[in-house]
Amino acid sequence: MVRLALVHLVLGCTLGALMLAGKAVQPLAALAAWRPLHQEMLLVGWLLQLVFGVAYGILPRLPGQPRDSHPGRALACAALLNGGVVFAAAGVQLGMTGLAVTGRVMELAAALLFATIAWGRVRPYGLAAAVTPRAPAGRA
Amino acid sequence: MPTLTRWFLRSAIVCLLTGLGLGLLTAGAAGPVAAAVQPLEVHLLVVGWATQMIFGVAFWMFPRPGGAGFGDPRQGWTAFVSLNLGLVLRALAEPAVALGASGQLATLGLGVSAASQLAAVLLFAMIMWRRIAGPR
Fold first, then answer.
1. How far apart are the first and last CA of chain A?
2. Are the beta carbons of A52 and A114 closer than 8 angstroms?
3. How far is A89 from chain B (nearest CA, A)?
């Protein structure tokens, strides 16, 4: 997800740089119409996705839980988020409300999946030790 | 924290204060000046503050595979200078162009600003791409 976020950053900023130059260079002026794509890529594709990716990597894990907890859900989250960016931006760009709504639903679904992964991993200090599995009494 | 991160973070804070200050000055204002300044205000907050904060913290905190250090410091410093040069030029040229300036200086300012910010982003992506590690 972090690498995908970097891809969105580079593509979104390339478009943004061309749009900025287009304010002074007439042949590029038409690119101003691509602002919805620029915004979607940088706010959702870059910022939101970076937060998701970093949180997935660094939030505490329950003892015994693998480093990549819920890999299937995380992959689905990444797919929905990136698909959502494309659909939402294309929908706004092309004036196709249905496509834009589909994109937003996909982004919301990605956020819900992220919430199910992250919720249990948000814990106070010391709780990890408290839930560390112990051998049953009398069998140690 | 590394010196480069300190510069990124302090510069981000300056952008935050400048962006919010600009927002305060133009709050409730209508007309060409407020409209000319609004894109700059947004980009000071989103690029100057949020993105620059991420650049600085990522440079400091992201994994350093094989104990390789923070990467080539020249690339990091070039990214810092490019990003902030781009923002300063944008702050000067974008409102001027929006208010009707069409001279070569304004055109050059916007062009260099765009190229400079893009160069910073490309350098940052190159530095970080190598440092994003898989599970160990």
1. 43
2. yes
3. 19
Low-confidence ranges of chain A (pLDDT < 70): 67-68, 126-140
Decide if B102 and A6 are in contact by the 8 Å CB cutoff.
Answer: no
Find the DSSP H helices in chain A: 2-22, 35-40, 49-58, 71-94, 97-118, 127-130
Its ipTM equals: 0.78
pLDDT tens by residue, A99-121: 989 999 999 999 899 888 888 88
Q: Which of residues 40-99 of B touch A (CB under 8 A)?
A: 46, 50-51, 54, 90, 93-94, 97-98
DSSP characters over A63-89? TT--SS-SHHHHHHHHHHHHHHHHHHH
A25–B97 C-beta distance less than 8 A: no
State chain B's mean pLDDT as an integer. Answer: 87
Query: Is the Cβ–Cβ distance between B120 and B76 less than 8 Å?
Result: no
